């Protein structure tokens, strides 16, 4: 192999390295810099609330805090009136939850019921059926971070 061939091979390797490693990193930094920050008063904030999915009966409202429900990493806030029963359902996404207000009983299939109070964190695995009830100490205000796009299906997967 002559010096010219080694030089061409080195140039090609450098170009491939730049395309694979550096350019996506630069794009992500620029993309992250163009996104605006978010600050919302979750307890007393003036948010627009919509109805929950049909699988949850009356007594439930929901608002999107950040992200896109059809994409990964959406942050959602649910408000349940006292006594609201959330029937058995499951999600394709795992859920990371923090109860901000009220008292919420959550039961995952095959597990003991957990009683969440304001300030409690809970994690729910993907595709694991669960139900819940907002006790009379409500209303319950529940923050949920979905890892995958937001969905909910009645019953078992």
Automatic annotation (TrEMBL):
Which keywords describe this protein according to UniProt?
Dioxygenase, Oxidoreductase
Q: Quick check: keyword Oxidoreductase in the entry?
A: yes
Q: Domain Cupin type-2 spans what residues?
A: 77-145
Record carries keyword Oxidoreductase: yes
Molecular function (Gene Ontology), one example: dioxygenase activity
**Pfam families reported for this sequence:** Cupin_2
- The residues forming the signal peptide are none
Which InterPro entries does UniProt cross-reference here?
Cupin_2, RmlC-like_jellyroll, RmlC_Cupin_sf
Recorded protein name is: Quercetin dioxygenase-like cupin family protein
């Amino acid at each position: 192999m002559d010096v010219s061939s080694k030089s061409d091979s080195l140039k090609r390797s450098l170009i491939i390295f730049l395309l694979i490693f550096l350019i996506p990193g630069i794009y992500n930094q620029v993309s992250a810099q163009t996104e605006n920050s978010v600050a919302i008063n979750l307890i007393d904030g003036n948010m627009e609330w919509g109805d929950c999915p049909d699988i949850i009966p009356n007594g439930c409202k929901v608002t999107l805090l950040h992200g896109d429900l059809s994409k990964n990493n959406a942050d959602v806030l649910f408000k349940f009136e006292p006594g609201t029963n959330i029937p058995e359902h499951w999600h394709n996404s795992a859920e990371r939850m923090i109860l901000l207000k009220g008292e919420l009983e959550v039961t995952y299939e095959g597990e003991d019921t957990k009683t969440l109070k304001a300030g409690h964190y809970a994690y729910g695995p993907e595709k694991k059926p669960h139900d819940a009830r907002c006790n009379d100490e409500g209303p319950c205000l529940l923050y949920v971070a979905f890892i995958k796009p937001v969905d909910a299906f009645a019953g078992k997967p």
